[in-house]
Amino acid sequence: MSQRRGFHRKLGPREPGPPRPREWEVLLLLRQGLEDEAIAERLGITPSTVRGHIYRLRERLGIASRAELLQRIPWEQCPSELQILKAGDRDHPKPGR
Asked: What is the span of the domain harbouring residue 35?
């Protein structure tokens, strides 16, 4: 069964807006310069899931590259519970869900 472009089977239409909680986690680690494999290990997900989060967020926001994504994200909207990741603490245990 194929999905319509821009539509999530559980969450409905993908409209521009701030990142979802897991997307924030991925973005904050990407911002620290971590590769997909390191992000995946840190979050307990697969590298392809990391790439999927980044791809869907870029597509939803109409952004062409990861570098542009990191520049255009509204960092001030980052949830306060992710402040440790925001600070760049690479040794902190993986965030809970």
From this structure: 19-79
How many structural domains comprise the chain?
Answer: 1
In sequence order, which ranges of the chain are alpha helices (DSSP H)? 21-31, 36-43, 47-61, 66-72, 83-87
Place of tokens 């680690």: 29
Q: Which residues pair with 7 in a beta bridge?
A: 13
User: Has residue 68 been placed in a domain?
Assistant: yes
pLDDT digits (tens, 9 = 90+) for 16-26: 677 889 999 99
User: Residues 6 or more apart from 19 whose CB is under 8 A from it?
Assistant: 27, 57, 73
| Predicted TM-score of the model (pTM) | 0.71
Backbone angles phi and psi of 33, in degrees to 5: 95, 10
